[in-house]
User: Fold this.
Amino acid sequence: MPDELPLIETREADIEHESAPDPEARWTDEYAQAVVKRVFENYKADRSGVEERWALADELWSGVVAKSFWPGTKVERHNLDVSIALEQEEAAAGYLESQIFAEFPYWFRLLAVEGQSSPEEAQQAQARLAWHLNTPLGLDGLAPVQHVAQALDQIVHLGNGGVELGWLSDEGRLLVRWQDIKDLYVDPDTYSPSIDTSPAVVQVFKITVQELQDLAAQDVRIKLPSEEELFSVAGQSGADRADEIRKNLAALGGQAALNPAREPRHKTLKVYAYWTPQRQIWSLDLRRVVLNVRNDYEFIPFALGAYVFAPGRFWGDGVPWLVRNEQRLARGLRNSRLDELALALSPHRVRRRGGMVSNALLAMRPNLIEQVEDPRRDVVVTFPSNITQSALIEQQLTEQRAQSITGLSSLVVQGQPVQSSANRTAAGIRAQQSGVSLRLYKPIRRIEDYLIVPLLYKCLALLSKYEPDQVLEGMGPKGESVPVPRAVIDKKFRVQVLAASRMLNQQGLAAIVGPVLQTLVNGPVMSIAAQQGKALDFNVLERFIGDATGSRQYYKFYRAMNEQEQAATQQPSPELQAEQQRAQMEAQTRLQMGELKAKSLQDVQSGKESVELVKLLLSGGETKGKSAKE
Assistant:
């Protein structure tokens, strides 16, 4: 075991009577320690009710029900769950992700600002930002966009979720990392899900002794205590409510909460990071300030979103909380039905008092023989009244009510619509699909407004501040590498995310894509267009089909012809060749028939002359000065 020494704590200043320093000026460690501790305790006390909602969401999602027993016994009752929260949450998360990241890799747009940037510069800056967000970072192979997707999962589950931003100087890369909302504390008076409306944020994170020492070696502003003091604190931090919620979730999944034996340098320390747009303070276990500097980013480096929230409130509600009552009701209906079936299979019996009966005879089983004097009087069997016979039907109605709350119908959750007359036509199916889009329009729009758009603006600020002065690598619309001049990163752009509006547009296009295609490729229509000097643009047609189907990529069914194919197009078509051959054969036939007719006429004339000659020879006379010989 390494040597350990008690941690020398930072003395707290009396901030009630001491004048507050300018946020831009240097703060003493004593004042910084007092501020971090006071703010954290205030923020923590305010969200206690929200933490109970998180614990309930984990319980509903895991489907684990506490054991219950028949009154006065140790016989367990049925404790099965109905996974309404899990089904609805998985469907919502998948639907949101498919809509937000539909046009990969350009799932966002940068637009030029008049007088400050051009469309070409906006396209180049977009390529660079897409390269940062879509390129894997680190040995885990995860790209920042995947951390954003993980934030979406937590938004659907707990109601809030987000990411942390930063810049990795050694790698020259933008850092976008999923931030567990349980470890983030905001001001109680924050009036919207935007993290920037909170004057300060406290982030709690765990870090090993080795990792903290490596950070201190890279950043001289981090002032660590001695190694012996770090070892005395490592692994000794008390568990807060967020840690308890995580342990309870692991226990619900069958994982035991253990304190594994670790190498001393791999033991964890708990750091409380205090962030404002002007200050950055790290307090080790709320006892020792190790970092007290100006915030170089000049903004709070987090971006958060919400699923459903009330106006004037920061904390949102996730899917499990929305369907909590319906899942509890469905759970009770199912377990009550099973309990009644158990009572029917093993009914209650009333026996005449007196006589010795073994416990083995009291339990119902096949081939049971029980000896009594008068079966009709000595033993009376009482069966339950079958009051729960419609429980399963009521459970289905409960699940349908849960679908109406979230807007996620069985068409999205299970892939098949609810049985109704609307399923008999394609128009009815499309109407059900459009209903889902209308219900999820607001959650997607909230995620765009509070998470995606602020995230992209903060990413642009970091790129402008830290990108090296050289030609940069960008990502084209097909994932190809493109060069990006450094100067375009400093321009002003407007961020645009169209997932919500594109989703509604897709529903409208999907309803008309069939008739439109049939009309455009119709022969007479194309002929009329050609007479007016117009031709069908297949590139636009491909984009139209992609928007209507929601496909992430466009399939090019046509390509440019090579030289051999172009030469082949100069030859007549097979139909034209066959027509020409038929015309040639008909002409040749007519010529031959004309020749035969002329020859026949000549033969007929020769025959007439021969007849006259024969007549003259037979008569022996002469004709008008001509001899028979002539």
